[in-house]
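ok here's endopeptidase La:
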Amino acid sequence: MHGEDERGRAFPAGLTPAQLRRRIDPASLGFETTETLEVVQGLIGQDRAMQAIRLAARIGHRSFNLFVVGPAGTGRHSAVQMVLDHEAADRPVPCDWAYVNNFEDEQKPRALKLPSGEAQRLKAEMEDLVDDLGAEIPALFEADDYQARRKAIEAEFADAGSARMQEFAARAKAEDVGIVNTPSGFLLAAIRNGEVIEKEVFDKLSPDEQARIEEKIARFQKELNAIIEGTPALVRAHRQRVIALHASMAEQAVQARISEARANFAGIDSVQQYLDEVAQDIIRNAELFLEAHAQGRDGPFPAGIRKIHRLPQFGRYVINVMVSHAEGDKTGAPLETEELPTLNRLVGRIENIAHMGALMTNFTLIRPGALHRANGGFLVLDARRVLSEPFAWEALKRCLQHRTIAITSMAERLSLVQTLSLEPDPIPLDVRVVLVGDRMLHALLVMLDPDFSELFKLQADFEEDFALTPENAELFSRLLASFIRREGLRPLTAAAVARLLEEALRRAEDSEKLSLHLGVLADILREAEHYACTRQDCADEAAPVSVEDIEMALTEAERRNARIRDRMQEAITRGTILIDTDGAVTGQINGLSVAQIGGFRFGRPSRITARVRMGAGKLVDIEREVELGGPLHSKGVLILSGYLSATYALEMPFSLQASLVFEQSYGGVDGDSASSAELYALLSALSGLPIRQGLAVTGSVNQAGQVQAIGGVNEKIEGFFDICVARGLTGDQGVLIPATNVPHLMLRENVVAAVDAGQFHILPVSTIDAGIAILTGVDAGVRDADGAYPEGSVNALVEARLASFATARQQFGRDRIGKVTGNAEGSGPA
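and the structure:
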């Protein structure tokens, strides 16, 4: 198929339909429906990443944590889950951990390490122990033996105090001094004939008699004071005897019950030591059980079945289980995934309760985090979520560096509250952390965080595509079959699988590679099954999904997302946005770009114009001047300047002033894929040759004039094609693309059909000379042995124009110098 310009000159034939879209023959797949295919275990095309995940799971050295890199939808999470599930099942079940009361310092709870499954058993044992002692200790104190021993102590101390006072009273009475009991205490007074001497009588006694009486009273008062002062010591001795009696009585019940508990946990040294501490504390605090018994005396339940371990005062004996692997749980090491990795949910937290207007806490309010649950196994986290949570990343690094889990609250880090807090023992940490993130995030962590590379030494980099071969096509088909069976979907026909393979090629932007963004294909499958279930001719529930269902799913998905694209195309067809698709214009060309809204990409043409005049060799990029051009676009424009100055007018100054602009572009412009179009516009403006407006251009260029590959080639071609279809195909419309982009073509069927009918053309070019010849219909020209371009060629016209600029500039310079010199001579004296 050939097109002709306005001069009637033909331009080269474009690509054939076979080069525009690779087709998969359903017959080559070797099956009728996916129901007959064997399932695939795991992912395909990800051998490198899977090997890294397995290494991270098996290596025993510390700091070999893993960062999984790759775009969403490539199966990163499922691959990690699958490999770690298998590896965790072969590892031993880790130990249990619990926090218990520190009876010496309650602000520093102790971490208790127990064999797997023993933490919950110890917790239940302690609850039973407290309940049992709650019945046994009060029973001992109500027994006749205790009552007799208590009465003996009371009688002993009562007799001791009474005997001293009686002996004192007898001696005082023998010397006529009596003890008077008053509301303010004991007083001594002189007596005569058994009666207290009244003050009037005492005053009438002789001075010698009064002095003798006062001396006796003073002497006996000292003895009475000594007796009174000795009473507290007697009371203390009494109390100590009672405490000793209580301890001895409680010890009988406690040691018997503790011995049973010790036997139940024989061989576990940490539990044996803890039970010793519990026994001593219960013996010292036996009154707690007596008070609980007294409080529940009038309750509805007998003492033997009351759950007194639930009372607040017995919280000191609670076993706060942080992590336990009880019997019946999954064997092997734990595999945890924390979807919301806040500081508290990662390293644990210490809760508070409000009491009398104040915040209170104790060791029973310590709660575990994901690191506790994953200890001894694997923890999978989303990297972006961890980094977005305050203090979570620093806490994770600190735990990995010190190999311990230290609980720190955010309020404590920020010093927001001044409350009494706990300092629980850190728990030793043995965990393999797996972060899942994208490549940009990984690069930023490597560059900005010096700790990252030390802690995460392994990287699992997921591929985005893999080669299309007969073997890989079979693997891909089996992978689809595996997904269908796992999700309970209908099977696919071979034609439907072939269409999905073609879509995978398009998603990979390569006719030789299949995309591994499996999440997108999974959504297409689910939507296609919906259409298969709603077809009137598909009453059979086992009927497979057809190629028509796949096509409908693809078409409807594009239609749902194409509102912005359709509005842009409407604006072009109505003339609001100026784009020519026929005729020829000097210094004007249709460039192509790709816009992306969410996950939907589409191509759109943009008018690029160039204007030239004599100047000082400056190439003005208007987009850059107004700060709308990105660095890559600016780089492309600077390359144009290098190409022009090195290709034309080599023996004269580069005397060009040129401006380039994307017309009606009101947003940012970046990328160098329009640099070849901009160069074509410049060459047209310099040569005076018009450019065919029925052709659009994409491709970058280097300083040697070679056209280089770009991205989004399919969307760019289709974007211009849609505009041409809306205005009517003329047969001389098409797109110039880099020849190196030909393997990337997977165009829509309607584009291929138009090319096959000769109504549209895809023209590959390798050099600027080849492209400008097609656009203008004039040969670019090659320098002959004398270094001159053929007369009338594009390059000859460009060089002649640049030479005229240089000559004019030189003449302008001489004229300016002559004028200045003439003025200077005419201004001298006559």
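+1. Residues 581 and 728 are 9 Å apart (CA to CA).
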